[in-house]
Amino acid sequence: MIKFERFQLSNGLKVLVHTDTSTPMAVVNVLYDVGARDEDPSQTGFAHLFEHLMFGGSVNVPDYDEPLQVAGGENNAYTTNDLTNYYCQLPAENIETAFWLESDRMLSLAFSKKSLDVQRKVVCEEFKEHYINKPYGDVWHLMRELAYKEHPYRWMTIGKELSHIENAKLEDVKRFFFKHYTPCNAILVVAGNISLERTKELTEKWFGDIPSGEKYNRQLPQEAVQNEERRMTVHRKVPMDAFYKTWKMCGRMDADYYATDLLSDILGGGASSRLYQSLVKEQQLFTAINCYHFGSLDRGLFTIEGQLVKGVPIEKAEAAVEAELEKVRSMPPASRELEKVKNKTESVMAFEDMSVMNRAGSLAFYELLGDGELMNQEHERYRNVQAADIHRIAQQMLTPQNSNTLYYLAAQD
To answer: In Å, how far are 8, 27, 107 from 30, measured between CA atoms?
Structure first.
């Protein structure tokens, strides 16, 4: 049970406080309710670009990292299709440094042509290194465009095209910032060796006078129900053939999310999973195979991916995957198998909760979902999943008309 308290400033900033006196450290986590799904289709990659720009200095603090390091702190950030999260950890006695830095860049991020030029170059190099020049780097560009026709999940967080970042103008960047990076669109979580009273004092001091901003009213184009099998074959300079297959799944707040998550573990969550045991160890068709999903807030992608043993025809590999799927569609998992994946999920969650930084990030995420208290209900929701739930979801979701298949083949010299 993760205990926390909450309050809200008059400018709309939501604040959650989790006190843990067993650690000398404290964490300041600021989650902004903006991700790649909120971008203009002609200007993608902006949320991720801002992850870099936010460390480029503010009007009052030219270098974000230096004062934090002097205070004994460390920081990082990440962007997804659904959100952007910034967090720093430092000795609790120096926590005001983190309040100062986070509030200052929320209020007065430095917008300069020089900063934009530097960070744009960094992001463009990242795009080239990881998504253009890296083997298998364009897989999810291809798969997302195959799977989604309307919803903005059809592009990756890095952006749909390199040119969108290359052509980003200072005015475009400013407009994006003032639309999304405001108190009324943010959740602040303070965790560690700090009291509620001290947190209230510091939050009011450093964030209280920042203008609220206007709450962003999200109206995303919704994806129509998929009623057709979609397939694509590409040839690339890669060491071995790879197989990717996805199906649309429920959103993160759907009641079926927990059963769907456990189904992914049954099929491909490690060396004891069905796909690995059958297709890697016994039939030796794949060198590696996994089943997973992205936990997307809107309808996401349930995924199977694997790399083939050299010489195995990809059609044979797909047929073997389909045979395993037919088993899970035709019969509920045994109680022992279900109990095993439930226990594994619980142990992973318990391990993650050991870190005060992870607890802060999780509280921010669940508050974004609607209520930080959801964090304390996860174990029970997984526990309540029945074998019949997994069987039903397998039958409903893992159908040909809901599928997207990518053959990613090694080009012949």
So the answer is: 14, 10, 13
State the CB neighbour count (10 A cutoff) for residue 152: 21
Residue found by looking up tokens 């209900």 in the block: 377
For helices 314-330 and 257-268, give the axis angle rounded to 10 degrees.
130
Which tokens belong to 293? 């999903």
Distance CA 410, CA 243 (A): 11
Spatial distance between the Cα atoms of 113 and 362, rounded to a whole number of angstroms: 35
**Cα 66 from Cα 63, distance rounded (Å):** 6
- Alpha carbon distance 251, 301 (integer Å): 9
| Structure confidence by residue, pLDDT tens digits, 46-86 | 999 988 888 877 778 888 888 999 999 999 999 999 999 99
Check if the beta carbon of residue 307 is closer than 8 Å to that of residue 288: yes
3-state secondary structure 381-405: HHHCCCHHHHHHHHHHHCCHHHEEE
Distance between terminal CA atoms of the chain?
A: 58
Please check whether residue 212 is in contact with residue 182, taking contact to mean a CB–CB distance below 8 angstroms.
Answer: yes
357 Cβ contact partners less than 8 Å away, ≥ 6 residues apart: 27, 29, 87, 89, 191
Q: What is the mean pLDDT of residues 332-343?
A: 96
Domains and CATH numbers, the chain: 5-207 (3.30.830.10), 230-410 (3.30.830.10)
Q: Is 104 helix (H, G, I), strand (E, B) or coil?
A: helix
Q: How far apart are CA 171 and CA 89, in angstroms?
A: 33
Q: Are 98 and 90 in contact (CB under 8 A)?
A: yes
332 Cβ contact list (under 8 Å, min separation 6): 387, 388, 390, 391
**Average confidence score pLDDT of the chain:** 94
Helix axes 257-268, 387-397, angle to 10 degrees: 80
CA nearest neighbour of 181 among 37, 50, 376:
50
Pairing outcome for strands 403-410 and 230-236: parallel
What is the reported pTM?
Answer: 0.94
Q: Is 309 exposed, middle or buried (0-12, 13-18, 19+ CB in 10 A)?
A: middle
- Closest Cα to residue 60, out of 27, 12, 102, 108? 108
Question: Cβ(134)–Cβ(105) under 8 Å?
Answer: no
